[in-house]
Design a protein that fits this description.
This protein is mainly α and 275 residues long. The protein is built from eleven helices and no strands. Helix 3 crosses helix 5. The radius of gyration is 28 Å and the shape is elongated. It starts with 33 loop residues before the first helix and ends with a helix.
Amino acid sequence: MSVVPAEVLPGSPRAVTQTVPRAAAAELAPRARLWPSLVAVYRAQLSRARVARIPLLFVATFQSVGILIMMRGVVDGGHEAEAVVAGSAVLVVAFVALNLLAQYFGQLRASGGLDHYATLPVPPAAVVLGAAGAYASFTVPGTLVTAIFGCVLFGLPLTHLWVLVAVIPLAGAALSGLGAAFGLLAPRPELATLLGQLGMSAALLLGVLPPDRMPEAVRFTRDLLPSTYGVEAFARTFRASPDWAFVLGDLAVCAGVGVVSLAVATWAYRRAAVR
């Protein structure tokens, strides 16, 4: 026979019912906002790319200056000179935004570097915009040097060079989105490099050469290239009385294409990060 205390019997009036408190729900950390995350990624990428700053500036600038010197023997002045100078200046941006950024994201995807960014509490748009902005920042000195050298070489006015403050970021955004998308969507880093170089070659041939000498079919292809509108906006400012409505229209097209291309690059980043 065993003796059981009365307190533990279910029907006993002396039984005590104890309620086990529920575990408090763990509070999640607030979601990272886009702007602080963008600044953090931009600073990190800027520090990383600072090592290659001097070779990057030299190669991009030397290439555009060489094209200006070569075209000086073919073009004397007028609207053709305006197109050559504007196209050579924007080519510095295309070299970095299309070529180098495609290579960077292609290598990042192939080496598994996207897994590192996927674990960070930052929005995907901050990763794409931060990397694109860091690489595009190094194009500012080269673009200014190329524009000033071209104006002196062809005898164009330096009055409205301030428009580069708008041309560089807007054209850079449109081209950076394409470059990042090339690198993130290409199945192999070699293909990403090829796509970036083809895009830069298109910016060189269709942006630097005067459009008046192009066939009609090539002009249509030129209109599809985002950097064309940055070139046109900059070239219009060399005239005695610039039509600012057309300049703003070209810049607006650059801005619109930039939003779309960066959105595609963000989608490509999400797609590549989960694979």
